[in-house]
């Protein structure tokens, strides 16, 4: 769990007032883990804390909170038993917060100055860094630790700021590209960048969360791409695939996936070696992509690819 200011800013800008529900503690059997969050607004929702009666009840409560004039964080302990018609046997502690443009501006100021977001449960008053019941050394240790993104001290909740999520670049807007992007979009792990040479290559409607890039020669933007990203190459052309791959290997990114067969990769690796790329560099490339046991349908390929990307993104995020 880390505070995603970018997502909240986008949602508040679009919907005006948004509730955030996050799981901060679990006991026993629960449908989701600590750090899970969902966002609620008047007639919509993003994310899930487990579905069913639990989510229905909490969503209704959150929408009532949206009608209040004050915006302050509250904690709720929720047993998952007969009261909800469930038999999980566990319990959750939930943090419920409401954000609008005014208090989100204050949140931004706190994060920009201190690198974490802190607030006091049950209080709508502006709190200062001096009010925190945590020593500077303890806060620094928490901020530098990969063990947890959440610190609870009495009535105070402190979260690390999620300044970046994993950049994911997809070259190619064909069937596999569309399935992959649509699936990755459902996860709060990736900053999606989608590249192709013509606008009509893309679907008619694309989420505002996706950075659509139309460029006649897609390989020309590679030198401006981040090194800490994951890249998937699945264009309409083997020649274009090779050009993009050649340039990506020169910036040494986190991972590269290339659609194709083992035969294609054998031919590509020979060409790339002749172009001066080392075997160590070529080892970054995964080809074929996905899980062959799942099948070759675009959605089956996408499921395998996104599963692998998710594991890498989570490992990188957890340090």
Write a structural description:
Helix content is about 35%, strand content about 25%. With about 325 residues, the protein is an alpha/beta fold. Helix 1 (about 5-15) runs antiparallel to helix 3 and helix 5 (about 175-185) crosses helix 9. The chain is elongated. The model has no long low-confidence stretch (mean pLDDT about 90).
Largest sheet: 6 strands, parallel
**What structural class results from the helix and strand content?**
alpha/beta
End-to-end gap: 14 Å
Poorly predicted regions are none
* Largest sheet, spatial ordering of strands: 11-10-9-12-13-14
Integer average pLDDT: 88
Keywords:
single chain; 319 residues; alpha/beta; six-stranded parallel sheet; five-stranded antiparallel sheet; 9 helices; 35% helix; elongated
Structure in a nutshell:
This protein has 319 residues and is an alpha/beta fold.
How would the blueprint of this fold be written?
Elements: H1 5-15, E1 18-27, E2 37-41, E3 44-47, H2 52-66, E4 74-79, E5 91-99, H3 101-114, E6 116-120, H4 136-144, E7 150-153, E8 156-160, E9 166-171, H5 175-185, E10 190-196, E11 211-214, E12 230-233, H6 238-251, E13 255-258, H7 262-274, H8 279-282, E14 285-286, H9 298-317
Helix pairs in contact: 1-3, 5-9
